[in-house]
Amino acid sequence: MDELTIRDTYTALGLSDFEYDRILELMGRAPNYLELSLFSVMWSEHCGYKNSRPLLGRFPNDGERVLQGPGENAGVVEVGDGWAVAFKMESHNHPSAVEPYEGAATGAGGIIRDILAMGARPVALLDSLRFGPTEGDSPEASRNRYLLREVVRGIGGYGNAVGVPTVGGEVVFDASYSGNPLVNAMCVGLIRVEDVLTARATGEGNLVVLIGSKTGRDGIHGATFASDELSEESESKRSNVQVGDPFTEKMVIECCLKLLEEGLLVSLQDLGAAGITSSASEMAAKGGVGIEIETDKVPLRESGMEPWEVMISESQERMLAIIEPDKRDEVLVLTERYGLVGAVVGRVADHGELRVLHDGETVGSVPAEYLADAPTYEREVVRPEYLDELPEVDLNKLPEPESFNEALLKLLASPNIRSKHSVYEQYDSEVQTNTVVRPGADAAVMRIKGTRHGFAVATDGRGRHCYLDPRGGGTATVLEAYRNLSCIGAEPVAVTDCLNFGNPEKPDGYFQLAECIEGISLACEALGTPVVSGNVSLYNETERGAIHPTPIVGMVGVLDDVSKHATLGFKREGDMVIVVGD
Amino acid sequence: MTLRVGITVFPGSNCDRDAMHAVALTGAEPVELWHADADLKGVDAVIVPGGFSYGDYLRPGAIARFANVMGEVERFAREGGPVLGVCNGFQVLAEAHLLPGALLQNTSLRFVSRRVPCRVERTDTPWTAACEAGETLTLPVAHNEGNYFADERTLARLEDEGRVVLRYLENPNGSANDIAGVCSEGRNVVGIMPHPERVSDPDLGSEAGLKIISSVLVGAGV
Amino acid sequence: MLKVRVLVRPKPGILDPQGEAVKGALPALGFEGVGTVHVGRLIELEVESERDVDAMCRRLLANPTTEEYEWEVVG
Amino acid sequence: MLKVRVLVRPKPGILDPQGEAVKGALPALGFEGVGTVHVGRLIELEVESERDVDAMCRRLLANPTTEEYEWEVVG
Ligand SMILES: Nc1ncnc2c1ncn2[C@@H]1O[C@H](COP(=O)(O)OP(=O)(O)O)[C@@H](O)[C@H]1O
């Protein structure tokens, strides 16, 4: 390749000149196309957290109950009686903007697999949603209605079928999300304290087994796509969107839990963005070992796939397991029993590289730690001008409504306040029979069968507040979640978050990100609720500008006696009504 | 003697564990019946639980009815054994022609998950014997295809023969005659859309469904 | 291998809420003058002989209580 | 009125879990030797002219992201 074509190639893959030079320096040679593809997906914002990693270090992560903080597939906190919950939130904003049903469905599927990768049984889903205004006849409103309808159908279509109850969430409408909806899904899983897994490959000679679906050309370069701004052009990248299959996911869950119960796995990792590449390189980097993948051993759905396509395919409903060689037959019998693909596709090696082989020949090899260590960008935090230009509002100068009753009814009917039952009635909130408090309350309450213990969970976000006052809004988001849990009678213990922001390369976006993180951190420190997992979704911008900075907080609380919880609603005539606080 | 209640497990069943939990609460012994095994393990009754067997692909229940275990369930049913289909289980039994009619998509075209008051119309089935005739049970529904359909003649016959076992007081899905559950001619096979196993545990605030799950113990004289 | 196309549709007289929904949605998109609309299923499969196709339709692909079907070899 | 038949099917290469499930079920029914199976949608509608049919397919009847369609006038 001459220099110009090389530049075109890496640019098309989403790598900058600086990043390409860094690759040359690290490798000490020019990478081939496959190797370049590996870098491009692993160094995307989505996988590499290039813009946010330095800022995320600010979050407090430690606490008495924390068994696993950030850095694994999900955070884990202890509940009591030897039980723990694993939880995490993740965004699927871009895929949902383009193909709302499948985007939302695969979002739910992806976060469920993150929880499964910890060894936990997924027991609850929540969905935090943002859309543009849906009222009126404009094409925009009708598009927003379509997005709302299909996203909700997608979450339900996946969650209901896979048998994980959707027990809470939010729906908020604001013009800043028009054309860029937010779809954040959170999953909570239940696990015995001693069974918590890490995604760490160990043991030279151990086998790498792919479990789940066949691999197709789904979402090739999806991770790069997720880190792009939405534009006309992204419409043409539509073939990137994956289709979910909750039926197979259900079998993947049952199969993996059975494999763990039988003690057949060394390690487990889900295949999310960047497919085998990210799972294998992360497992290798964490374990300080190498992994060899034989792409011709990967069962394919489509013929003629190139090794690089196999490596970065984002086909859903797949997990990667590390097993000891003598467990091979037992593992494959079980995958077969659950009707799944089970294929030995590689092995753990001592060379520290992610090495790709095809028909016995090495077609690419990169030290796993390089892939796992994307360059990060720290920028100057500059206070944006818009904050000084915000109009001052004096609440005392607002006119009093003529009729308070009418004003109240109007408020209650407004999209952001009115009941969301039309949404959550499309979700099975009770399957698994652990749901003690269903949607419609401040938080969901779940029991842990066989114990008196339970946990409560809620999600909250305050985009407009964060726009007007990023730090204060970040703090208030945590406080709101904390109040929701307190009201229901739970002791809040830890937080997961999903940071939905605009372009961090623009000063406004970076400032908002940094300040919201500061605000969240201050609140979490004060309340003793560490951040144990999270996800970042940047570049949420359309031609019309950025969304409101919208960090979503998912908070988990514990109840020592789950029967002692409060529910909404006045219970008896004559009871007293008391206001607590300021 | 402990009554043994078999619960079928198809790929995609997702209320199987819930049904087992509820059965255990009645004092009976739950027994897992794996779809691929043509073996009922000598159980005294069978529950075909809810979920999305085979992903509900093609039509809910259409593929599950051909699972190996279903041949045995059909034989057991023909011999008069008590069989209860819940939600997807009802769909499976209808597809297998163990129950008349079919379950079409909800008229709202949406999945519906809510609590619905239902009237127990008949107590002369093994799955309603512990209920009182005419009593109202508030039961959860959670389905996309629960809209009961049968042709006019079949409907008239079901009503005449007292085979509508459970009726919605607030129809959530467009079902003909507000039908929430029916039974076979022999009355031993019952299919219902609501989920009794979800309201069978005092820890979850209601035991309305335990009456249905435990009815089979009454019939067996346990 | 033969390519077979199976069309499955709701029996006449059976409620077809999907068809109704499509019919209801068309005017809003500016498509007027649409009569009845029915939504069914299309199944395309490769078989070695056409011998079994009718039995597959009767037993699996269509529900005789609510649906009717037709099939043809298309390639 | 013209009768139009629209066939909508998953795009080649797109995961078709329904087709896979049906394919997997057929041997258990004693039908061996079945190749690929794909499940899609059949839409039959009456229109005044064929002018708008293609636009209807693109905008409502098929999802261009995941599906392809064809249509013909059948009566
Ligand atoms: N997208 C959703 N999915 C599931 N439940 C939801 C969703 N949106 C709202 N809910 C539920 O509706 C109830 C009210 O939500 P919300 O109005 O956001 O509550 P609050 O303002 O009290 O925090 C909560 O129980 C919440 O979990």
TrEMBL record, chain B:
Nucleotidyltransferase listed as a keyword: no
What is a biological process (GO) this protein takes part in? 'de novo' IMP biosynthetic process
Instruction: Tell me a Gene Ontology molecular-function term this record carries.
Output: phosphoribosylformylglycinamidine synthase activity
Q: Where in the cell is it found?
A: Cytoplasm
Instruction: Supply the CDD domains for this chain.
Output: GATase1_FGAR_AT
Q: Where is the active site?
A: 87, 195, 197
According to the lineage, what is the superkingdom? Answer: Bacteria
Name the predominant localization: cytoplasm
What InterPro entries is this protein classified in? Class_I_gatase-like, PRibForGlyAmidine_synth_PurQ
Matching Pfam families, A to Z? Answer: GATase_5
Q: What pathway does the annotation place this protein in?
A: Purine metabolism; IMP biosynthesis via de novo pathway; 5-amino-1-(5-phospho-D-ribosyl)imidazole from N(2)-formyl-N(1)-(5-phospho-D-ribosyl)glycinamide: step 1/2
The Enzyme Commission number assigned here is 6.3.5.3, 3.5.1.2
Is-annotated flag, keyword Calcium? no
Q: Which GO terms describe its cellular component?
A: cytoplasm
| Annotated keywords | ATP-binding, Cytoplasm, Glutamine amidotransferase, Hydrolase, Ligase, Nucleotide-binding, Purine biosynthesis
On subunit structure and binding partners, the annotation says:
Part of the FGAM synthase complex composed of 1 PurL, 1 PurQ and 2 PurS subunits.
- What is the recorded function of this protein according to its Swiss-Prot or TrEMBL entry? Part of the phosphoribosylformylglycinamidine synthase complex involved in the purines biosynthetic pathway. Catalyzes the ATP-dependent conversion of formylglycinamide ribonucleotide (FGAR) and glutamine to yield formylglycinamidine ribonucleotide (FGAM) and glutamate. The FGAM synthase complex is composed of three subunits. PurQ produces an ammonia molecule by converting glutamine to glutamate. PurL transfers the ammonia molecule to FGAR to form FGAM in an ATP-dependent manner.
Q: PANTHER family per the record? A: PHOSPHORIBOSYLFORMYLGLYCINAMIDINE SYNTHASE SUBUNIT PURQ
Question: What protein name does the entry list?
Answer: Phosphoribosylformylglycinamidine synthase subunit PurQ
Q: Which organism is it from?
A: Rubrobacter radiotolerans (Arthrobacter radiotolerans)
TrEMBL record, chains C, D:
Record's Pfam families? PurS
- Protein name per Swiss-Prot or TrEMBL: Phosphoribosylformylglycinamidine synthase subunit PurS
Keywords per UniProt: ATP-binding, Cytoplasm, Ligase, Nucleotide-binding, Purine biosynthesis
Quaternary organization: Part of the FGAM synthase complex composed of 1 PurL, 1 PurQ and 2 PurS subunits.
Question: What is the phylogenetic placement of the source species in the record?
Answer: Bacteria, Bacillati, Actinomycetota, Rubrobacteria, Rubrobacterales
- Please provide, in alphabetical order, the Gene Ontology terms of the cellular component aspect for this entry: cytoplasm
Pathway the protein contributes to: Purine metabolism; IMP biosynthesis via de novo pathway; 5-amino-1-(5-phospho-D-ribosyl)imidazole from N(2)-formyl-N(1)-(5-phospho-D-ribosyl)glycinamide: step 1/2
Q: Which family does it belong to?
A: Belongs to the PurS family.
Originating organism: Rubrobacter radiotolerans (Arthrobacter radiotolerans)
State the superkingdom: Bacteria
Which reaction(s) are listed as its catalytic activity?
N(2)-formyl-N(1)-(5-phospho-beta-D-ribosyl)glycinamide + L-glutamine + ATP + H2O = 2-formamido-N(1)-(5-O-phospho-beta-D-ribosyl)acetamidine + L-glutamate + ADP + phosphate + H(+)
Give the main localization category.
cytoplasm
Which compartments is it annotated to reside in? Cytoplasm
Listed under GO biological process in this entry are: 'de novo' IMP biosynthetic process
The EC number(s) this enzyme carries: 6.3.5.3
